[in-house]
Amino acid sequence: MSEDKIVKTSSIKVDVGTNENNVPVRMKWNAEDGNVNDREASAMLLSLWDPKEKNTMKIDLWTKDMSIEEMKQFFHQTLLTMADTFERATGENLITEDLRDYCYHFAQKMEILPEE
Description:
The protein is of the alpha+beta class. It folds into two domains: 11-65, no CATH class; 67-111. The protein has two helices and five strands, in the order E-E-E-E-E-H-H. Strand 4 and strand 5 (55-62) form a beta hairpin. The protein starts with 11 loop residues before the first strand and ends in a 7-residue tail after the last helix. This is Protein involved in gliding motility GldC. It comes from Lishizhenia tianjinensis.
């Protein structure tokens, strides 16, 4: 495998403020390339693939004030995004349609579908 020459380095920064019990109470993030500066966030799921260990490293955080309804929406939207990303990365459209079907089922069970 040939290595590409790095011509630029970019950073995404997440600041997490915690209370005396180490529970997140405020999160802000910055992404200079995306013109994001001190944007508030209530939850994050970060997954990084470690090619040496062949394993995923994860950080899952949410603020104490995030509601259950917001968490349901957050997970639904994250699952849909994962289906889109997986399809773009692998071209596996049949299994991603199954995942999207599950996302619809999830939304029904969580009662978060918009009123028709």
